[in-house]
Amino acid sequence: MTDNQQKNLVKQEGNCGIVMGALIVLTGVLVAMTPVLSIISLTALIAVGLLFVGVFTLVDVFRRTGMERRMLDGLLGIFFIILAILIFFNPVGSAIGLTIWVAAWFIVRGVMELAGMGASPYGRSFMALDAIVNIVLGVTLFCINPITAQAALGYYVAISLMFWGFSVIHRSILLKHLV
């Protein structure tokens, strides 16, 4: 590959990163505008996903000819369908469980972002800020009252998305100007 081709690829990657970062920030802004509705919608979307996984798991069980894991997978498919139905009938209550998962995701994402900083030669300061914000958000969600955490979850997701988006934009701009 020639040097010009490499430069063009790096510029394209930088442009794509800027667009992706802007879309992430925009998503964060939209979530911040209606945080509770966003979380309830996300909970319902998870229920739809579980329903599809359950149905497809059962279809797969009945398509198999051998007995390997049929019983276990069949029970798992039924479990997913029941869980999806329970979430559909109580999306607000299910959002509390979602709050715990999102808090864990914030912490894991923050730790992974810190661990990945060593592999990135550019944009480390914003990556570190993004990681610290996510870890603080996750720990805060774990430490506060579950009802308060559920109410704050939409704003926390919005904050996380905006920092992530700005971090992606920052790295992409730096990458674009390296060539």
Molecular structure report:
With 179 residues, this protein is mainly α. The protein has 6 helices and no strands. Helix 1 packs across helix 2 (35-63) and helix 4 packs antiparallel against helix 5. The longest helix is centred in the C-terminal third of the chain and has 33 residues, at 146-178. The chain starts with a helix and ends with a helix. 30% of the residues are buried. The mean pLDDT is 81.
List the helices and strands and how they pair.
Layout: H1 3-33, H2 35-63, H3 70-89, H4 91-116, H5 124-143, H6 146-178
Organism: Parasaccharibacter apium
Transmembrane segments: 16-33, 39-59, 71-89, 127-147, 153-174
Protein name: Acid-resistance membrane protein
Describe the structure concisely.
It comes from Parasaccharibacter apium. By secondary structure, the chain is an all-alpha fold.
